[in-house]
Amino acid sequence: MTKTVVILGGSYAGLHVAHYLLKQKIQDVKVVLVSKNSHLYWNMASVRAVIPGVLKDEELFHPLSTALSRYPSSSYELIIGTADAADFATKTVTVSPLDGSGIRTLPYDELVLATGARSAVTAGGPEVPWKAAGSYEEAVTLIRETTSRVDAARHIVVGGAGATGVELAGELGFEYGRKKAKEIVLLAGGPEILGGDAIAGNARSQLTGLGVTVRTDATVESVRPAAAADGKTEVVLRNGEVITTDLYLPTTGMVPNSEYVDTKYLDDEQHVPVDQYCKVKGVDGVWALGDLVSKPRAGFLITQKQAVGVAKNIGAVLRGKEPAVVKGLPFDIFSCAVGRGGGAGRLGSVKIFSTMVWLAKGRTLGLQMIPSYVDGSVA
């Protein structure tokens, strides 16, 4: 009897697991990949994509159908749609295909939750393209609209000084700040950027060198149109201060895409708790990874390690073997590109030279890895 592995989410984690299982050619196993976006979206480079004329759509988006076309058509199914509900008791998932063909109920033997997270939106603030929250068409449109707004603005406020905020401010500073073409302001809610991480001082000095104004203890409370109705935006801080700007770009965290999961399987932040095997706690045959889990934190390298472990564990289970503990990174790695010429990072407690961060991340923001996700060599 054919066993079915349903994978919800077609980004880094979900596509990685799909490639691994299909390459294993396990007898009588079918992989069903469900993704709202018909393309793999390399959102790691989204902060650079909103700078006019730097990246093209086809560099960021690659069809999932092309990535899977190398496998026998009988071994997989690609559904472009959304997950509406997962019933762990009956081992079924309800999905809505975007082609309007009607709601489907998919039975599964093993289920992978890899639906990631979407960008949090500040009250009154705009949508932003740092994560692919919608379809391929919606994602492309949002990038183009954001790029157009960046091009037209002369004063830009970036709200939130985590990794995405620092990288976005760095891209804007590299392109415009040094030339004094635009005024770039980065707002950190706490006393330091990057949550006060050991690399914060280095990143902050580089941002300043790129002409970015960094403000700390500046939490954004809300955003509203300027009273003058001149197209400007008022950014209201928690202390009551109002900053008037041409463009506000929030990078104030992420919201897990977990609405289809019963709340009893979610933690207080709506993440999905997992055990040491990346299995959803208290459930048989359900695995979760990536930003949906955010354990030990959200991060591309962490997601990669989890994808390797989950893929191997499902392969083992399908062969009647026991899963293994999913190994994380040997030490914490944290890095931020700061513009197209530098960066700040550390390996554990050891800081990395800016040039090394640029070579490893800032130079391409990982775009050179896309072919491995398309041809399956990543797995």
Automatic annotation (TrEMBL):
Residue ranges of every copy of the FAD/NAD(P)-binding domain listed in the record: 4-296
Gene Ontology cellular component annotations, sorted alphabetically: cytoplasm
UniProt xrefs under Pfam families: Pyr_redox_2 (PF07992)
Any one Gene Ontology molecular-function term assigned to this protein's record: flavin adenine dinucleotide binding
Domain of life, source organism: Eukaryota
Gene3D superfamilies for this protein: 3.50.50.100
InterPro entries given in the database record: FAD/NAD-bd_sf, FAD/NAD-binding_dom
Keyword annotations of the record: FAD, Flavoprotein, Oxidoreductase
Family the entry assigns: Belongs to the FAD-dependent oxidoreductase family.
Protein name: Apoptosis-inducing factor 1
